[in-house]
Design brief:
The protein is of the alpha+beta class. Helix content is 21%, strand content 26%. It has 4 domains: 38 residues; 53 residues, no CATH class; 34 residues, no CATH class; 58 residues, Beta Complex (Antimicrobial Protein, Tachycitin, Chain A). The N terminus is likely disordered.
């Protein structure tokens, strides 16, 4: 608000130079009015239906009404305010998907990086591949495959999701959709099907167990 205060201060200084009482009163009144108008830009969350509002300067901060008082909160590192019950967590979302992070608003909190993650939360490019990327959740990076080529082999098949055993890609007409296995079921990377944990265990055992039906031949006897 530096630009807004500069002409007001100049105007008040000009009035004060005349040493007229009425000029002093007018100048101070104008300055106070501008100050209150500046503070009023942040909407009181306690007077809104959602009880939560965006900060007026910073994308990654917001205000929430608690016990009749306005309390300021920070979004998780790398995310910005998106609105109550919106975004990926805590009412916050990726910057490019939020309607509350347009210029001149900025992210004030510095990035907290980890391996493969510029911020604790976000989606970031792969260091060596142009068909893979990293999704970061609280600093934990998960390698992902760009979905454009997932369904090339089978437009209606299933594709493993990284090392996950309970999520996978299901191709529907060439377009991949992320699926989660129901409770007590896992995704079998060999059959590309969802099986019970018991079937998965038995399948693994059958692949590793020795064949007891094999005929064991004794070595030929030697005569001296």
């Amino acid at each position: 608000m530096r630009n807004a205060y500069t002409p007001l201060k100049f105007f008040v200084t000009l009035l004060l130079s005349n040493f007229e009482p009425y000029a002093i009163v007018i100048g101070v009144s104008i300055l106070l009015a501008a100050t209150f108008a500046s503070c009023a830009q942040i909407e009181d969350p306690c007077k809104t239906k959602s009880r939560i509002v965006a900060d007026d300067k910073y994308c990654d901060k917001y205000w929430e009404c608690e016990n009749g008082q306005s309390v300021q909160y920070d979004c998780p590192n790398g995310l910005v305010f998106a609105g109550k019950h919106r975004g990926v967590t805590e009412g916050c979302d990726y910057p490019w998907r939020s309607n509350y992070c347009e210029y001149p608003k900025v992210q004030i909190n510095p990035p907290i990086g980890s391996e493969h993650c510029d911020w604790l939360y976000g989606i970031f490019g792969h260091e060596t591949s142009c068909t893979r990327y990293w999704t970061c959740w609280n600093g934990t990076a998960t390698e992902q495959l760009c979905i454009g080529a997932l369904c090339n082999d089978d437009p209606n098949g299933n594709v493993p999701l990284g090392k996950s055993c309970n999520r996978y890609w299901q191709c529907q007409g060439g377009y991949p959709r992320l699926q989660r296995c129901p409770a007590m079921l896992v995704f079998d990377r060999r059959s590309l099907r969802v099986n019970s944990t018991r079937d998965q265990t038995e399948s693994t055992r059958s692949r590793t167990a020795p064949d007891n039906n094999l005929e064991i031949k004794s070595p030929p006897s030697r005569t001296f």
